[in-house]
Design a protein that fits this description.
Number of helices: 10
Number of strands: 12
Largest sheet: 6 strands, mixed
Shape: globular
Strand content: 15-25%
Order of helices and strands: EEEHEEHEHHHEHEHEEHHEEH
Strand order of the largest sheet: 6-7-8-3-9-10
């Protein structure tokens, strides 16, 4: 395992953001009941699970977009719905699963909207706002098309612009729902490396929903595995990821070996008869 720095999440047991005995869903359709989750401060927490297991619904509840029908989401020890919306927006930055940009808006203007929570009646645009936008665009490599219309961009470029807007918000907690959507493999790795640097270098708490199990195991310091609206396991990937857990969560047979580069769990799905490569790990 890579050596952890001063922001090692294993050194803290505190949680600014948590869900306590919540029931969540849409209309009369319940997605999860009696769900308890505590996000470790300064962790890179990744939520994994099959489609429709409640990952995105949980993230929406943690972000104050979805109010539980029972239980409560707590931010700094107080129900999140008791905090003013602007105060929450200065604490939680959210990248939803789907985002729609206003017609005719440029990349720079969209990223600048991430600074809205910091605006006040007597404090409008400042040098700090400008610096935050420039830094966010540089980090996500979208500076080169800052004056282009968002509608003109490819899906992957647009996704990086949305990530830049969330980064410009400069919140201590980041919530990202499938942030690697539309990105090619190179940009997926760049983004995950950036998020890890924000987590380890700046101490930001990162919570992401990811579909790629191997990416989750490589980058997460804390993993939450869900199925059917329940948490089946959570902890460090090296401590909880086994072939039995993967089969229980995703219904697939696999081998779990050590990644030769990151030394984190590497999931190798099985298909039919064992390949000679798999035989050596039996």
């Amino acid at each position: 395992m890579a050596e952890m720095n001063e922001h090692d999440p294993e050194r803290t047991t505190t949680s600014r953001l948590s869900a306590r005995d919540i029931t969540i869903g849409y209309d009369r359709r319940i997605i999860a009941e009696h769900l308890n989750v505590a996000i470790p401060d300064q962790s890179f927490t990744v939520i994994v699970g099959p489609n429709a297991c409640g990952k995105s619904t949980l993230l929406r509840a943690l972000a104050r977009l979805l109010k539980p029908t029972a239980g409560e989401v707590l931010l700094d020890g107080k129900t999140i719905h008791g905090h003013p919306a602007r105060e929450v927006a200065r604490t939680l930055g959210l990248l939803p699963q789907t985002s729609i940009a206003p017609d005719g808006i440029t990349v720079a203007d969209l990223v600048a909207r991430g600074r809205y929570p910091h605006q006040k009646l007597i404090r409008q645009w400042s040098r700090e706002d400008e610096a935050a936008v420039i830094e966010a665009m540089a980090a996500t490599k979208v500076t080169g098309f800052s004056h282009r219309l968002v509608d003109e961009l490819s899906g992957g470029q647009r996704q990086r612009v949305w990530v830049a807007m969330v980064l410009a918000q400069q919140t201590p907690i980041l919530l990202l729902d499938e942030p690697t959507t539309f990105l090619d493999i190179a940009h997926q790795i760049e983004l995950l490396e950036l998020l890890r640097e924000l987590n380890r270098g700046k101490g930001q708490t990162v919570v992401a929903v990811l579909h790629d199990l191997n990416h989750a195991c490589r980058y997460a310091s804390h993993l939450i595995a869900m199925r059917d609206g329940a948490v089946l396991a959570e902890g460090r990937p090296a401590d909880i990821v086994t072939a039995e857990l993967v089969e229980q969560v995703f219904g697939i047979a696999c081998l779990v070996i050590e990644d030769p580069v990151s030394h984190t769990p590497l999931i190798v799905p099985k298909g039919g008869n064992l390949h000679p490569f798999e035989e050596q790990f039996k």
